[in-house]
Amino acid sequence: MTFIALMGALSAVVMLFRFPLPFLPPFMSFDFTAIVEIIGGFMFGPVAAFLIIVLKILLQLVMQGSGSVGTGELQNLILSCAYVLPAILIYNSKKTKKRGIIGMAVGTVTVSIAAILSTGV
User: Fold this and answer.
1) What is the CA radius of gyration of the chain?
2) pLDDT tens per residue, range 15-51
3) Which pTM does this prediction carry?
4) Helices 33-44 and 71-93 sit at what angle, rounded to 10 degrees?
């Protein structure tokens, strides 16, 4: 439980360092929080990763508030889970470097599809 809290807090701090994406609206940005979430998930499983994601979002709401009336945070939850959970589930079936890379590739495809579907385009 302490590790999840630490990783959630670290993820919230890492979220403060965002980079805007060129040619996209200002609310679309890139951050490195998935690295913290996926490390926690690889170590302790998908439930821990989900709790780290939820804690990160709650801490971000406390530190910065919501500029999107919660819809941005909901999409962050959906997209973070779409990336991290498939990667962790594939890696946990057989813990090898190859399975980790395959899992992250599947997570990348999954989050891309989820991003397209969740924007309402």
Assistant:
1) 14
2) 888 877 787 666 667 788 888 999 999 999 999 999 9
3) 0.85
4) 40
